[in-house]
Structures are given as C-alpha cells and as structure tokens.
C-alpha cells in the first residue's frame, strides 16, 4: 500500500453516511448463489434492488443530503451514462432540488427514460466522458448549479462505501470481495470500508477488457486514460468511463489487491448464470464481478466466502432477452 490511509475516507465518515442515507437508499441483501465448478461459497450483493436499480443512489444521496438550503435552491447537475443520473435525479427530488443531467447519446433508452421519470432535465452530448464533463462545466458557469460528480468526490466515495459496510455486517467471515470498476467510486468505497473493518479480506476490482483502463493504471501505478472509441465498445455501458478518478485511484492503490478484466462473452455468460442461480436481474456492468468468479479463478486467491457486487440491474429488456436465449460458454 503506497498511499497514506489516514488521508482517505474514514470509517466514522462511512458510518455517518450510512445513517444519513438510510431513508433513501436501502440495505440490499446478500443472495446465495450456486455455480457449478465454482469452489467456495458465493453471495451476490444485490444493488440492483435499490430504488433506482443501482448502487449509485448511495453516493448521490450522501452528497445531496449535505447541501445547504441555498445550494439546493440553485439546483444540481451531473454527467452520467445512466445510473448515476438516476441516483442524482431521485435524491434531488427527495430534497426538492432541480436536477440537470448531461448524458451521452449512446445511453440505453431504459436509463434515459427513468431519469426523465424522476423529474430531471436531460441534456444530450457525444459519447466521450470528456464531452459530458465539458458541457456540465459550461452549464454550471451559466446557471450556478451544484455539481454532483459521478465518482471523483469524497462524499460520493463515502456514500458508495456504505455498500462495503453492509457486506461486513451481513457476512462477517467474508474473505473475498469483488466489485465492478470504471470511474472507481464503487470499488474505492467498498474496498475502503471492507479493509478498514477486515484488513485481511482480499478485494478485487473487475472491468471489461474492452474498457480496461483501470487495470492498466493499477499495473502502471498512475492513471492512464483510454479513448472513448475504445471504452464504448463494451456491452457494459456503466463501465465506459475513460479513466479512473484521482481520489478513487488513491483509495484503490491503498485498499485494493488487484484488478481483473473479463471478456464480453464472459459478461454475457455471467448474466445468464446470475439469473438462473439467484433470480436476480443484472445489467452487463453488474455482472462483471461474477464473471471473474466464474472464469478467472486462477487469478483470484483461495476463499471460503466470496461476495460479488451486482452493481445494477437497469438492463434493456431486449438485450436481456437476447443474452438469456444465447448458447455458449
């Protein structure tokens, strides 16, 4: 661990966030899953059962619930491919704030529709995450909105960390935790909570090999950015961020044991396995951690009790039907 952990999110802050968001986000269950040829016990942390269908509600609500009345009156803005957009829209509605969401043009229709249904205003831009950020910054200058970043923010990390807090509360003898990673909010938060409570537990981040910038950054020891035309190739639309956040990377360097990448075929097979075994509906991004358990055991340490975070379930119905009826690995 190369980062001073006393400069990172504290356990007290995570516990305070859990109390703060308790009336908005729910404590999601650990669902036991049985997969042929997988040794050890496996539980799925069903973040797909959050009110918005994703873990993103944790960080968004933790950030928005700490705004002052004056900030709430100005409204909030974010840039997101879908799940964080829904989290911000939902939490903003709870406090009576206007929400503006800058979205890429390739956002799945189901996520765009849900964001609008929560009362947010949507502004469309191109597919690059840099385009979303630039447009959001322009609107902030024009209107004075308060930015609720999707990942590179201490309060967002602290909110996402409540997921890790729950994992330890629900399964104290867990010895391996796997979480999806893109911008790094979920992984950095979960790893921080888990390691501060159980330093011996191994924590791995999982991402598509077609959007493997965090894995490359982890190996290099510094943040590496991938082009949007590369990261946009993956079916896992929630994991197409071009680079991990700086604050997130600091937490990942301190608390994460490794990053594993999975193929597109493995993601699709994991989606089928999750539905068949646990009756949980995962979006592609939410299935990557299970894909690592199913197909990359050789890259993981031995374990008795593993938890794979199913980060979201906002999948297009047609895509889900296609994946579930496929044959293959």
Write the layout of secondary structure elements.
Blueprint: H1 11-20, E1 30-33, E2 41-46, H2 56-64, H3 69-74, E3 76-79, H4 83-95, E4 99-104, H5 109-117, E5 121-125, H6 129-143, E6 146-147, H7 154-170, E7 176-180, H8 185-197, E8 202-208, H9 213-220, H10 228-231, H11 246-255, E9 258-262, H12 264-278, H13 284-295, E10 305-310, H14 317-324
What do you see in this structure?
With 329 residues, this protein is of the alpha/beta class. Helices cover 45% and strands 15% of the residues. The strands form 2 sheets. Strands 1-2-10-7-8-9 form a 6-stranded mixed sheet, with helices on both faces. The longest helix is centred in the middle third of the chain and has 17 residues, at 154-170. The chain is globular. The protein starts with 10 loop residues before the first helix and ends in a 5-residue tail after the last helix. The model has no long low-confidence stretch (mean pLDDT 94).
In short:
The chain has helices at residues 11-20, 56-64, 69-74, 83-95, 109-117, 129-143, 154-170, 185-197, 213-220, 228-231, 246-255, 264-278, 284-295, 317-324, and strands spanning 30-33, 41-46, 76-79, 99-104, 121-125, 146-147, 176-180, 202-208, 258-262, 305-310.
């Amino acid at each position: 661990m190369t980062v001073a952990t006393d400069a990172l999110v504290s356990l007290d802050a995570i516990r305070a966030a859990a109390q703060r968001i308790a009336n908005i986000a729910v404590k999601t269950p650990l669902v036991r899953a049985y997969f042929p040829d997988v040794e050890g016990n496996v539980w799925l942390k069903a973040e797909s059962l959050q009110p918005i269908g994703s873990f993103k509600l944790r960080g968004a609500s933790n950030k928005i619930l700490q705004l002052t009345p004056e900030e709430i009156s100005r409204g909030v803005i974010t840039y997101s491919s879908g799940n964080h957009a829904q989290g911000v829209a939902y939490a903003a509605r709870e406090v009576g704030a206007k929400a503006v969401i800058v979205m890429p043009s390739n956002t799945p229709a189901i996520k765009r529709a849900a964001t609008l249904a929560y009362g947010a205003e949507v502004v469309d831009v191109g597919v690059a995450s840099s385009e979303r950020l630039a447009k959001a910054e322009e609107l902030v200058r024009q209107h004075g909105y308060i930015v609720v970043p999707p990942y590179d923010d201490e309060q967002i990390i602290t909110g996402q960390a409540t997921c890790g807090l729950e994992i330890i509360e629900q399964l104290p003898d867990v010895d391996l935790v796997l979480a999806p990673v893109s911008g790094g909010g979920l992984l950095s938060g979960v790893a921080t909570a888990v390691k501060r409570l159980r330093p011996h537990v191994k924590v791995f981040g999982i991402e598509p090999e077609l959007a493997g910038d965090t894995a490359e950054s982890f190996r290099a020891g510094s943040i590496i950015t991938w082009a949007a035309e590369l990261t946009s190739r993956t079916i896992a639309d929630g994991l197409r961020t071009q680079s991990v956040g700086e604050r997130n990377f600091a937490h990942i360097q301190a608390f994460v044991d490794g990053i594993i990448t999975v193929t597109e075929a493995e993601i699709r097979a994991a989606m089928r396995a999750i539905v068949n075994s646990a009756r949980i509906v995962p979006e592609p991004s939410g299935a990557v951690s299970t894909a690592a358990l199913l197909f990359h055991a050789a890259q993981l340490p031995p374990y008795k009790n593993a938890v794979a975070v199913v980060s979201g379930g906002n999948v297009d119905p047609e895509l889900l039907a296609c994946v579930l009826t496929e044959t293959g690995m």
